[in-house]
Amino acid sequence: MDVQLAVIVLLTFVIHLIGTLAYAFRIAGVRTGHIAIAFSLFNILVLLSRTSNSFQGPLLAKRIEIGIQDPSQFDPTFDYVLIISAASVATLVGGLLIPTFQRLTTIAVDSFHRSRSMPRLLFRSLTPRGLSVLTQSAAIPAFQNLEALKLPTNVPIKVIVMNFAVSALWSVGVIASIYAGLLEPDYRVTASSLSATINGVATIMMFMLIDPYLAGLTDDAAKGRVREDFFRKVIIWMILSRFLGTLAAQFLVWPSAHVIATIARWI
């Protein structure tokens, strides 16, 4: 694995790790009752994710340009398997970090609620006391959480299935659009701009079907209308479906790339 590919893998890892850790902020919002503050703090991590996205695309595009000029430079199949594997590993790591991260975010939300100052919150996190809080918050997932794998009867299975599909599509959208340039070198610029062909479907599903359900469930949990353990079970299933979606994405890259290459040739 060369340096360029290593950077792409690292950026992919960061993007999917942050996406998984978003669930910790939902739990922190429920525990503190300050849902808006929790999501506001999460936006700081979103900036890091978007920065990683802004570098990932161009680096992938550059790799394809090199591959078109000299196909012997790299194996595209090895590339996309490794990149999407990074997404799966990041999702798994993020899931394992949820117990630790939810404690940290709960403390951060409470602290920000008192000080209302982001610079002060960041400064406190770098003090010896802040570092000790980080150490004390470290935790591994409890074995009892495995009971959550028994899907609650009142959780719409379609939400879990849709989250699986969305995760798979989001994992391949950008990669497939870039690698479509290998299939249609003459239309590689057009193909690279067609990631919305794949991601658009995932975006519609997420913001029209999945996110409203999670938002309502988060509000209900914060107000005590549903039990917190039920809320946590749903979160565990969302993380599991996200992880399985990234695994399924391995089989969608080239079919998606062929679809995008065909569209690039037609339009």
From TrEMBL:
One of its GO terms (biological process) is regulation of cell shape. GO terms for molecular function: lipid-linked peptidoglycan transporter activity. It is a multi-pass membrane protein. Belongs to the Amj family. Its main location: membrane. The chain crosses the membrane at residues 6-25, 32-49, 80-101, 160-182, 194-214, 234-254. HAMAP family: Amj_flippase. The lineage of its organism: Bacteria, Pseudomonadati, Pseudomonadota, Alphaproteobacteria, Rhodobacterales. It is found in: Cell membrane. Keywords: Cell membrane, Cell shape, Cell wall biogenesis/degradation, Membrane, Peptidoglycan synthesis, Transmembrane, Transmembrane helix, Transport. It holds the Pfam family Amj. Involved in peptidoglycan biosynthesis. Transports lipid-linked peptidoglycan precursors from the inner to the outer leaflet of the cytoplasmic membrane. GO terms for cellular component: plasma membrane. This is Lipid II flippase Amj. Pathway: Cell wall biogenesis; peptidoglycan biosynthesis.
